[in-house]
Amino acid sequence: MRGHISAHAVCTAIREDIVSGALAPGSRLIEEILAARYGVSRVPVREALRTLQSEGFVTTRHHAGACVAEPTEQEAADLLDIRALLEPLGAARAAARRTPAHLKVLRGLVRLGRERARHGSPADLRQLDGWFHETLAQAAGSPSLTALLTQLRRKIEWMYAMEPTPRVGEAWDDHGAVLDAVARGDAERARALMAAHIERSLPVYRLRRLAAPDVSDTKRPVNTARARS
Q1: pTM to 2 decimals?
Q2: Which of 7, 92, 156, 200 could covalently link to 47 via disulfide, CB atoms 3.0 to 4.6 Å apart?
Q3: What's the helix, strand, coil split of the chain in %, to 5?
């Protein structure tokens, strides 16, 4: 069974545990322990760690081997600056390249987001927000840009917690306005609206305290269905 689980699935599982804090910054990532944790062999774990190192989630230390990276406050701040540059670009590209299928999904997400903003839970809204931004990134029609934006959102989620905000409904109005511009093919308006939305969202981001407890060797089976998504 172990040989049938791909390195991609293992990479997704380890990344999710890093982002959630289950594998804390500074923790050693020992192949044998990780293989037992996820119920796989060491081969996909080794490949996954190489991928995560290239993404910046893992680093290698002399005499310690692979460890979860320990980002600095400056590195975390840089991520928000990079987002402010790339997401408006993605919105502009989406206005020029989106498909009817992208628009259908985005409209459904905005409709559901506005409804949940009135009656839903913060966890539901964070997930819907993530889906909206990921779909918009896919609509940009550039695999390279989509990959950059996806990785950027994962790292921001890792380094920052989001404070509750009373302007959840306004955030979904922002999403709706961006969607309208994308649907009309107005790239410059989509770019400007996304830039304004990001600027208004900055106060909700709170830098996490990046502590580093020991890594547990508790077994955690890989969720292969989620890893494929």
Answers
A1: 0.80
A2: 7
A3: 70, 5, 25
